[in-house]
Design a protein that fits this description.
The complex is a heterodimer. By secondary structure, chain A is of the alpha+beta class. Chain A folds into two domains: 10-133, Ubiquitin-like (UB roll) (Roll), CATH 3.10.20.740; 147-285, Single Sheet (N-terminal domain of TfIIb). Helices cover 23% and strands 18% of the residues of chain A. In chain A, 44% of the residues are buried. By secondary structure, chain B is an alpha/beta fold. In chain B, helix 10 packs across helix 16 and helix 13 (294-308) packs across helix 16. In chain B, the strands form three sheets. Chain B has a five-stranded mixed β-sheet with strand order 10-9-13-11-12, sandwiched between helices. Chain B has a four-stranded mixed β-sheet with strand order 2-1-3-4, covered by helices on one side. In chain B, strands 7-6-5-8 form a four-stranded parallel β-sheet, with helices on both faces. Chain B has helices at residues 12-22, 45-49, 55-66, 71-81, 85-92, 114-117, 121-132, 173-180, 213-218, 223-243, 255-264, 285-292, 294-308, 322-337, 359-366, 395-407, 409-413, 446-453, 482-487, 506-520, 526-543, 550-567, 571-575, 578-585, and strands at residues 106-111, 139-142, 154-158, 164-168, 270-276, 310-317, 344-349, 390-394, 423-430, 436-441, 458-463, 469-471, 496-501. The chains are: A alpha+beta, B alpha/beta. At the A-B interface, helix 2 and strand 7 of A face helix 4, helix 5, helix 20, helix 21 and helix 22 of B. The complex binds flavin mononucleotide, iron/sulfur cluster (2 copies) and FE2/S2 (inorganic) cluster (2 copies). Residues 355, 373, 521-525, 528-529, 568-570, 572-573 of chain B line the site of one iron/sulfur cluster. Residues 247-251, 253, 255, 275, 277-280, 355, 357-359, 392-394, 397, 570-572 of chain B line the site of flavin mononucleotide.
Amino acid sequence: MSEAVFVGLPRRLVKLTIDGREFEVAEGSTILDACRRMQIDTPTLCQLDNLTPVNVCRVCVVEVEGSRVLVPACSRKVEAGMKVQTDSDRVRHSRRLVLELLASSVDMSLCSPQVHAWMGRYGATPSRFGDQVATAAQPVKIDNDLYVRDYSRCILCYKCVEACGVDAQNTFAIGVVGRGFDAHISTEFDTPLPDSACVYCGNCIGVCPTGALMFKSEHEMRAAGTWDESRQKVTETVCPYCGVGCMLELHVQDNSIVKVTSPLDHSVTSGHLCVKGRFGFEFVQRREAKR
Amino acid sequence: MDIRTTGGPATAEEMAAVDGLLGEPESLWEGGERRASDDHLAYGGRATRSRRHLLLPVLHAIQDRSGWVSRGALEYACRRLSIPPAEAYGVVSFYARFGLQPRGALSLHVCDDIACKCSGAEELCAALENAHGPSGVVWHRSPCLGLCDRAPAALVERAGMQHKDRQIAPFTLAQAESILGGGAWPEPATYSMPRQAQPKLLRRIGAVDPESLESYRLHGGFTALGRAEVIGSDAVIREITESRLLGRGGAAFPTGRKWESVAKAAARPHYLVCNADESEPGTFKDRVLMENDPFAIVEGMAIAALATGCEKGFLYVRTEYPLARRRIENAIAQARAQGILKLEIEVRRGAGAYICGEETALFNSIEGKRGEPRNKPPFPVDVGLFGKPTLVNNVETLLNVVDIVVEGGASFAATGTKDSTGTRLFCASGHVTRPGIYEVAMGTPLRALLDTAGARKVQAVLLGGAAGSFLTPDQIDVPLSFEGTRAIGATLGSGAVLVFDDTADMKQVLLRIARFFRDESCGQCVPCRVGTKRQEEILERMLGGRDGDGRSDVLLLSDIAQAMRDASICGLGQTAANAIASGLTQLKVLNV
Ligand SMILES: Cc1cc2nc3c(=O)[nH]c(=O)nc-3n(C[C@H](O)[C@H](O)[C@H](O)COP(=O)(O)O)c2cc1C
Ligand code: SF4
Ligand code: SF4
Ligand code: FES
Ligand code: FES
């Protein structure tokens, strides 16, 4: 243990002002990092700590002095002397409109309580565009035994595409297809998943913030009205299949595993699993024997 | 990456089209036949992947040969370039020009955009609809084709071994019927002769033979490049800075400052991109320049590359400009053959996406990706094409550069106003008796331009195209300069001057603009993707007289407008509400 280990150059601290308060964060941090350190709750939809920022949803925008337009907090790096406003009229207006426009076009009912709280905070009223507006409504895609895709819930946050691609799985089974309001997530030529390159790692499900991508077990229980998170227990364990040591969170309801996740901040998985850890749990519950 | 293909093989024709561009595949690993050695050895992966940027040229080769892109053909392209099919599908489906359904070899694209509407395009489209069914099969409605000076306009294309495409304007129903019946195509449209007394930028147009380097030389061609080589990079940049030239692509950024940043950028290589995507409705100046003075643009690019240390140049031209493309290609080939042009310049075709005129979307398009703009910063001068420092300039900007190097920056700056130097090209179209390109000194009142172009009983002027805004008759004394238009909340934009007389149906014009932005939004960011859609819907219901309450709809529109302006990623979303807002508030199109 005598060899020196290079831990990178020391990062300088950068001083900026957010909502009138001076604050110092490490160089290279984003405005969002700084806001979080300062306990300023900032809405985000397309940002996730384990994915490259795509800054497409625009719900995190803030006002930066000297900038003609608002800037996305999730990807914009802090600069010395920056003056940031996170709650000005302009910011509140854009955040409200982003949430309203989204919710007027897709079903956001299964988004996290946090998202619903932001809608409340910014006074989002999606119905004000009228009831004759175009939406993404479409039938749920059920083409395999493991997970379903309900794109009428998809907010096009690009997270699943990133997780399927260079940010985790490197499988590239899905992409963004079409343009403008018709843009959507799809396999090539809308091929059913079993014929696509999908390897069922389920990492897209792990990052999806809207419930558009969902375990088939969860989808069926929701349809049957038996899904009840208050009755679910989460048990942490280590995946039994190989020697990598991925941490699993087994979501158990009525003594059955209904979903498997892994924590985003886990050093081994960063939240990502493979098909075995994600879906290979049936042997545990021996449903056949129970019947 | 494991490329999984399930769509069946490509036809021999499609494979030949792809191989014609890429060469024969060398192994199974890049789409070739399986050989014994391929079972044990994988090679060439990096080389194959490094050609990913050729995806659009490959797609054009397929489309030019078959008239559409079949699944087999796309998957063959994926294997040849090592691109996941889902990603490539995302790319093909992004560009309006590529067809994903079987189509006949012949396709007819008819412009139904603003200027053509003023010249009967709607009647033309209605007649075609009657005779040949709705747009999208035999004939296709198209946004502005950049032929507004001879509206109405069309583009006709025939796929096959001998792919042919041609712009036709003015276009008539009789011509449409004849072409669709297999008849001969009328001669290509070129330009309406500019009618200024003393043109400067336009002085060679009509005088020089656009296909002959010798002719260009006789008109003083390549003296600027010669001078630039003598005085060197620093001095050239100094002249440009002194000229106070502002970019003519729409954003009016100081050219000298941009050049200096690229020249100083440490990373290598540096790239040069000439932005010839010109798709702003009502704009056709870059087409006229490329078709009639192509050597000058090549010379401008050579000077820019020399001054900023660019190792390679690209010229990105919209695919709807076939003649311009051929003339530029010819000019590059001749100048290279004669050893005058040392810079390697590749001409890339767009594929029917207005957004690809936005510089960072343009980079993605050249890289073979969906034309989605990138968030800025970082700016192109630091991180541009292929992640390298990149100089992007508009065609007209580069043409100005040629003159500045010869006459000197100070002399150039003597024309125009203090903040807007030189002359500017304006594209007059719509209800004018003499449509065409007008070169005027910056600061000239719009009224003078309208008088020369023959505008009467003006109801409104759309200055700067769809991304610009409407002016009312009492605003037409505005000086045509960056600061003059800014003062009244307008912009020169791309130089489009669309004139509407008292017969124009402004409601239909507003709707067309709303549809344009909804069609052309890349769909990446929420304010623009959903905002442009809602904007169109609300406008439709207001014009349709539904939902009675105009006031609350106006409020909704202005709420959407503010979010689009403030929170969109790029200039498309940021300007998508300008024309409509000015139409409602200034022109009072709806009396609300
Ligand atoms: C939606 C959009 C479309 C654009 N289209 C064009 C275009 O067709 N041609 C062009 O030169 N610039 C276009 N621009 C501006 C370019 O992004 C860029 O500013 C310009 O090419 C820089 O050249 P310049 O400095 O010589 O003006 C467009 C910008 C936006 C936001
Ligand atoms: S499916 Fe989910 S993760 Fe993918 S883009 Fe839609 S909302 Fe985002
Ligand atoms: S503003 Fe519109 S065109 Fe620009 S990035 Fe956003 S969605 Fe795409
Ligand atoms: S969270 Fe920043 S743009 Fe989506
Ligand atoms: S060519 Fe039709 S509007 Fe420009």
